[in-house]
Amino acid sequence: MKHLLILLLCLTSCVNSQIDIKKIQLESGVEISRQTLSSDGSSFASKYEKEGKEYLQINDKKIGPFESISVFSLSLDGSHYAIQYDQNNAEYFRVDEKVFGPYQNTGKVLFSKDSKSFGVVYFKNSDEKYVQVNEKVFGPFDGSSYMVSFPSDAAKYYFWYNQGKEYFIKWGDKQIGPFEDEPNPTVSKDCSILGYSYKKEKKTFIQVGNKTFGPFDYAYGPYLSKDASHHAFEFKKEDNTYVQVDKQTFGPFKKISRLQLSDDGLTLGFIYSENGKQYVFRNEKTYGPYDNVDDIALSYDGSILGIRYVSDGKLFARVNDKIVGPIEQVFYPNFSSSGKRIAWHYVKDGERYLQVDAETFGPFEECTIPTFSADEKNYCFTYSDKTGTYLQYKDKKYGPYPWIEYSHTKENKLAIAYQKKGDNFISIEKIK
Which has the closest alpha carbon to 232: 222, 241, 240, 242? Predict the structure, then answer.
């Protein structure tokens, strides 16, 4: 009996070490209408209505009332929140305890990847547009980007803006310009290099760090490898389109689209048209001809190429050498962090299926595209039927619940949040 008790204690300890559970109490009688879970699983936010007003609950903290909450979000580490709401025919946003406004219109508040900064674009009136990063306000401008972009180094945020006919790029503390038209800024993933296109004397130029390419009649890009050691862009010359990768040029083509470059800069993909047909170019290999190519997806390491195309009036999906179809619909895939794994979602004969590498799941009534853990070993997805919503992870099914939210943490745990039917609380679990 003593040995049995010890065994049971060990088993209980093992289960508890695999799953951490916490509960968040809800106000009695309210029903959640929207919810979100932070990426690390530490914070949960939910919106609900009470007596004609809207409220937001973040963990155990209740915020409100508001006339109407349009958008709310959490920083990746769950330490900050943003609420965007309407009050007295004006728009406001709130970051933690600080309220900003009133404004005529606000874009979405975005948090940086390190959760230390936020950025937002808003109009005070129809003629004055502003960009705000934390407490720093830029403007008024005649026009600007729709959002502030944060690469991994939050100090190197960037956006473009114009004052009259002069256009500029703001990259951290640097102001670059003026240009004659809207630039197209991008930053390498390691934040070392800024790239952009710009117009001067009615010609287009491509800038990658301190290197200038042009002039061109038309050019678009650049696309940068992770460390910006490689770059690609498209340009026009005498009514033909070309693609340049570093010092190598491909073409001429009548038209190209969806130019993509792998993180290491060694794999290039794009769609091009020729003699009324469309083709996909991937380094030295060509796929096609197709009646139409809707889209392509090149993985981060360049090892996987997905093609959504139409042939003989029917839709197909191709992932490297595997072809699925004819199908009714296919959605853009998710890749694992290195790009070696792929997950995607398609509809065939009115039913939904999920594909993870070579494995097929389904059919489902509704489902979400699987996402991968940071170490790429596991993946997770949700699906729904008449009984409720389920979550699939490590060959185990959770549910049914009215809804379920999940996120992969940096520690390769799965954080899930759900509410069982009839419960007056939210359960949050972290599963190893």
Answer: 222
- What distance lies between CA 406 and its chain's CA centroid? 15
Side-chain half-sphere of 344: how many Cα atoms within 13 Å? 25
**How far is Cα of residue 136 from the mean position of the Cα atoms in its chain?**
25
pLDDT given for residue 127 in this prediction? 83
Are the CB atoms for 199 and 219 separated by under 8 Å? Answer: no
Cα gap 202→126, rounded to integer Å = 29
Concatenating the DSSP letter of every residue in 367-383 gives: E---EE-TTSS-EEEEE
Distance CA 176, CA 197 (A): 12
Q: What is the pLDDT of residues 253-299, one digit of tens each?
A: 999 999 999 999 999 999 999 999 999 999 989 999 999 999 999 99
- List all residues 6 or more positions away from 51 whose beta carbon is below 8 Å from its beta carbon: none
- CA distances (Å), origin 255, targets 243, 272, 277: 10, 6, 11
CA angle, residues 266, 267, 272, in degrees to nearest 5: 140
Instruction: Give this prediction's pTM.
Output: 0.88
Compute the mean pLDDT over every residue in the chain, rounded to the nearest whole number.
Answer: 92
In this predicted structure, the answer to whether residue 10 has a pLDDT above a threshold of 50 is no
Q: For residue 7, is pLDDT > 50?
A: no
Give the SS3 label for residue 2: helix
For residue 191, pLDDT beyond 90 = no
